[in-house]
């Protein structure tokens, strides 16, 4: 087992633009499973760029390792939503029951503030669409890193609420391959494949692909599709190089095509007596590069670049919308260390554009050059101080300064972290309601101000003798938050909130491991309020449960299999413009997973929502009349698919399997 390195200290002040860490060596992920079996994980975090173990980071980073990814891969092979949803303080929120789209909310903050990255690159766009979360298979992920709270000092204006960094698997020294077939009781199918191999002369490569489909389902027989149908193809090749002097390179490319169908069934109508079909056809293509080159006598030179384009063809009833979104990104930085001080400085440029064929009034092009820096300082063996900051010159919203200060004190098995940061977000037309209903009823944007936030957290942790515990207190204040305001029965507009949107809360986690068994309990409290868009004082932020909790038990033995059970509680939520109720019901969800490994083949079965909780068991999903923003459904406050069982077979070849 590796000897834990001395605690390092992040110090000072940092200008950080869009950032990610040097590539982890291929062997790091290979060795991870063996170390996990011995009871101690030695995970190097990439999302902070400090290159430290997760235990030694001044900023709290939640890491989902490959072992947990493999578990969730058996539950939802087609997307990463469940993978991140079970992290305390992270909530996957359905934004459109009609199309099934979702986004990720961090500690009660809106989903549009969360930046989704792949190996530190914005391959899913500067503001990923809500459907994008459902189009990323977890097959080739090595780990997932989550930073909560304002990360604009690290990643710029797209990371006001936090960052999720998807880190790719590194090929092993031997060729390997995997193939997974999955079926669901709701007539869904998934086929995923992964292969990786060394290519000689320090080169290696991997290829991931998948096909995923779901048959549309009307579970309550009202003529409206409760589970949208879709057909999706994905492919992602990656090329890796590691030089003898420590230099490395990652090249990646990806393509996704999906056709999704919701709305009314053929021959059925909404309450106004007319059919209302909903379709969304999407195509996304991307490419990226990450490299690290040692510079003698100084440190390391880092460079990252990516390009992404995605097109949507959407039908909302009789209204068709075609649009295109492009993101270009580049960054160069130089970092090194001197004694107990680590430093990094660089520059970056990101450009985001949106073009709509039907509604060109909403087109935008944002160009954001920036400077960033990071300073880390060790103060003895137990204290780490960190400062980071970024200066962005936004083409539409002017010059913005985003600092973040953090500190770590780690005596023995205890950790104490404190962090405070500021950031900003450049508004676009795409709040949740508009993504769900389209642009047809939205008035042209006025002179919106940039949304700004201050976030803070205090984190207490303990890890020893198989026990891991953590308590985090968090708070955020958002000024000029963009809200949807009703103009009349057929139109809406976006405005800056007349006041501060406030969130206060806490996360609590306790885990115990004993040999092959582990039990994890979690509880999250969120108190969130915002100015009422109608001007009538303040209100509780809709669709934000004050209380959520989870309990997961797992037995897992390498080469034999796993058995797990889980229970999750979601408390009552304030609802907005719901004619059937002002507050949702509280509910429990139960699940169970079993996998049996037979050499290179494993069989698995997974049951979700065993209690068959479904929102349409309590109230209709359809509204009595179309909402001013164009939607025909109420907000989703609970599951819409009910009890689902999935199962399949997984084959592994080579790579020491």
Note down, in words, how this protein is organized.
The protein has a single domain, classed as TonB-dependent receptor, beta-barrel domain (Maltoporin, Chain A, Beta Barrel), CATH 2.40.170. The model is unreliable at 1-40 (pLDDT under 50). The two termini are 22 Å apart. The radius of gyration is 24 Å and the shape is globular. The protein is built from 5 helices and 31 strands. β10 and β11 (248-263) form a beta hairpin. It is mainly β and 657 residues long. The chain has helices at residues 26-37, 66-73, 81-85, 152-155, 432-437, and strands spanning 62-64, 90-96, 101-106, 114-118, 141-148, 162-168, 176-184, 188-200, 203-214, 229-242, 248-263, 277-295, 299-316, 319-338, 341-356, 364-379, 383-394, 398-409, 414-425, 451-464, 467-479, 482-488, 491-496, 500-514, 517-531, 538-540, 547-557, 561-570, 587-598, 601-608, 644-654. The chain has a 22-stranded antiparallel barrel.
């Amino acid at each position: 087992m590796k000897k834990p390195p001395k605690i390092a200290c992040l110090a000072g002040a940092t200008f950080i633009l869009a950032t990610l860490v040097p590539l982890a060596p291929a062997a790091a992920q290979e060795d991870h499973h063996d170390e996990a079996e011995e009871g101690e994980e030695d995970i190097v975090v990439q999302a902070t760029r400090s290159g430290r173990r997760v235990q030694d980071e001044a900023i709290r980073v939640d890491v989902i390792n490959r072992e947990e990814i493999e578990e969730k891969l058996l539950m939802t092979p087609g997307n990463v939503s469940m993978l991140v949803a079970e992290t305390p303080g992270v909530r996957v929120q359905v934004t459109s029951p009609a199309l099934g789209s979702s986004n990720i909310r961090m500690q009660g903050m809106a989903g549009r503030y969360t930046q989704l990255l792949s190996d530190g690159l914005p391959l899913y766009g500067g503001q990923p669409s809500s459907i994008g979360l459902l189009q990323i298979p977890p097959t080739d992920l090595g780990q997932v890193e989550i930073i909560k709270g304002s990360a604009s000092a690290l990643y710029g204006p797209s990371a006001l609420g936090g960052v999720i960094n998807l880190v790719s698997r590194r090929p092993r020294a031997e060729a390997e391959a995997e193939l997974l077939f999955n079926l669901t009781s709701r007539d869904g199918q998934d086929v995923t494949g992964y292969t990786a191999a060394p290519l000689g002369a320090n080169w290696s490569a991997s290829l991931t692909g998948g096909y995923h489909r779901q048959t549309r389902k009307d579970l309550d027989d009202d003529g409206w599709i409760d589970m949208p149908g879709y057909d999706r193809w994905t492919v992602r090749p990656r090329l890796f190089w590691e030089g003898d002097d420590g230099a490395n390179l990652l090249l990646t490319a990806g393509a996704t095509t999906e056709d999704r169908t919701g709305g009314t069934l053929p021959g059925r109508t909404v309450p106004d007596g007319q059919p209302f079909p909903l379709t969304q056809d999407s195509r996304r293509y991307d490419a990226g590069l990450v490299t690290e080159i040692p510079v003698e006598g100084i440190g390391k030179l880092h460079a990252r670049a990516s390009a992404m384009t995605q097109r949507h063809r959407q039908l909302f009833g009789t209204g068709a919308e075609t649009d295109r979104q492009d993101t270009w990104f580049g960054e160069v930085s130089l970092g090194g260390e001197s004694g107990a001080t680590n430093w990094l400085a660089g520059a970056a440029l990101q450009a985001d554009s949106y073009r709509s064929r039907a509604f060109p009034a909403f087109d935008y092009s944002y160009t954001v050059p920036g400077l960033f820096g990071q300073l880390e300082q060790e103060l003895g063996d137990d204290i780490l101080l960190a400062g980071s900051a970024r200066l962005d010159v936004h083409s539409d919203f002017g010059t913005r300064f985003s600092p973040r200060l953090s500190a770590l004190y780690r005596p023995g098995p205890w950790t104490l972290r404190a962090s405070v940061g500021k950031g900003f977000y450049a508004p676009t037309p795409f709040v949740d309601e508009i993504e769900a209903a389209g642009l047809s009823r939205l008035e042209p944007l006025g002179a919106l101000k940039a949304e700004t936030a201050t976030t803070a957290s205090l984190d207490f942790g303990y890890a020893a003798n198989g026990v891991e515990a953590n308590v985090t207190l968090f708070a955020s204040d958002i000024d000029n938050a963009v809200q949807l305001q009703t103009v009349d029965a057929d139109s809406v507009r976006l405005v800056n909130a007349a006041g501060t949107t406030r969130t206060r809360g806490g996360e609590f986690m306790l885990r115990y491991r004993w040999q092959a068994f582990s039990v994890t309990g979690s509880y999250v409290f969120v108190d969130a309020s915002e100015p009422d868009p109608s001007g009538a004082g303040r209100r509780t932020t809709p669709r934000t449960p004050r209380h959520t909790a989870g309990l997961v038990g797992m037995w897992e033995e390498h080469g034999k299999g796993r058995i797990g059970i889980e229970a999750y509680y979601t408390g009552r939520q304030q609802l907005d413009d719901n004619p059937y109720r002002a507050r949702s019901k509280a509910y429990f969800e139960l699940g169970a997973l079993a996998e049996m490994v037979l050499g290179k083949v494993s069989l698995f079965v997974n049951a979700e929502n065993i209690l068959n909780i479904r929102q349409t068991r309590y109230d209709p999903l359809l509204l009595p009349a179309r909402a001013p923003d164009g939607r025909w459904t109420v907000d989703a406050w609970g599951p819409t698919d009910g009890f689902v069982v999935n199962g399949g077979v997984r084959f592994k070849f080579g790579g020491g399997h």
